[in-house]
Amino acid sequence: MTPSLIELLDSPKTLLLAHRGDSRVAPENTLPAFESALKLGVDLVELDYHQSADGVPVVFHDKELDRCTNACALWGGEKVLLSSRAWSDLCQLDAGGWYGEQFAGTRLATLEEALRLICPRAGCMIERKSGDAETLVALIDRLGVVDRCAVAAFDWSFLARCRELSSSIVLEALGTERLTSQRLDAAMQFAPRVIGWDNRHITAEGIGMVHRRRLKVWVWTVDDPARAAELIAWGADGVISNVPREIQPVVATSK
Q1: How far apart, in whole angstroms, are the C-alpha atoms of residue 185 and residue 188?
Q2: Domain of 48?
Q3: Cα Rg for the chain, rounded, in angstroms?
Q4: Contacts with 102 (C-beta within 8 Å, 6 or more apart), sequence order
Q5: Orientation of helix 133-143 relative to helix 156-165, angle to 10°
Q6: Per-residue pLDDT at 1
Q7: pLDDT, tens digit, for every residue of 122-153?
Q8: How distant is the alpha carbon of residue 8 from its chain centre?
Q9: DSSP percent split of the chain into helix, strand, coil, nearest 5
């Protein structure tokens, strides 16, 4: 049995997270990308989701469907909002053909489908792009995967609502730009376990500030092995990467 997220957080090892799955090998945020990351043996798979017009959490990064599906060709127009369509429409889209012919016909996944694939074999970092906290927390509870998931968002009011709904859910406060004591103090109000920060704006001093609050630091998005090694030397607890195969040896040597 793979370790729970709590066990991973309590471990001294540096965690490897596959950003949108193994997104340089398969179309981002699709089941094939997640399967590839799982076979690689990452600690967590990172994914994003929006809610459909009828309230279904759907795995996808952009608010618009144009870049990674055939929505424009199928329905016409441009800048088609995922949130404007019901799941019965969204499940008809091709979410893989844009990446390569071998993935043509790949469908969008619901968050439930993704969690059922990922959680028996790894942790999952769920980044909320849109949607209400009640739907997400209820889904995690129903699937029994609260000990396998970290819920992340740049919207800290959403995270605060998740904490009101669940005392046990692992929360990750995402941020960019300068990391300050004041911002960390604000995050402490909803008791996160992880601070997820833009690697371009993280410093050794910033990591130290987080650790003094007894929180973990995950850095994104790190595709350069040399930069990963530097961040790990500074004390980063997790590295989120588009190229987990390239970062894996760096993480392995840090354990």
Answers
A1: 5
A2: 5-63+112-254
A3: 18
A4: none
A5: 50
A6: 65
A7: 999 999 999 999 999 999 999 999 999 999 99
A8: 16
A9: 40, 20, 40
**Position 102 pLDDT exceeds 90:** yes
pLDDT tens digits along 40-57: 999 999 999 999 999 999
| Secondary structure (DSSP) of 60-81 | -SSSBSTTTSSHHHHH-SS--B
Torsion of CA 242, 247, 248, 253, to 10 degrees: -160
Please give the torsion angle defined by the CA atoms of residues 170, 18, 131 and 177, in that order, rounded to the nearest 10 degrees. 80
Q: From residue 246, how far is each of 30, 121, 173, 251 by CA, in Å?
A: 20, 21, 26, 10
**pLDDT more than 90, % of the chain:** 98
Residue 254 confidence (pLDDT): 83
The structure tokens 């091709």 sit at: 94
The answer to whether residue 58 sits within a structural domain is yes
Task: Give me the residue label for tokens 């471990």.
Answer: 11
Which structure tokens are listed for 214?
Answer: 């007894």
Distance between CA atoms of residues 237 and 251, nearest Å: 10
Axis-axis angle for helices 225-234, 244-254 (nearest 10): 30
Quick check: is 207 in a domain? yes
> Domain total for the chain?
1
Place of tokens 């016909």: 105
CATH of the domain at 142: 3.20.20.190
* Residue 255 pLDDT class (50, 70, 90 cuts): low
DSSP state, residue 110 = B
Q: Specify the pTM.
A: 0.98
Residues 6+ apart with CB under 8 A from 189: 160
CA distances from 95 to 70, 90, 114 (A): 7, 10, 14
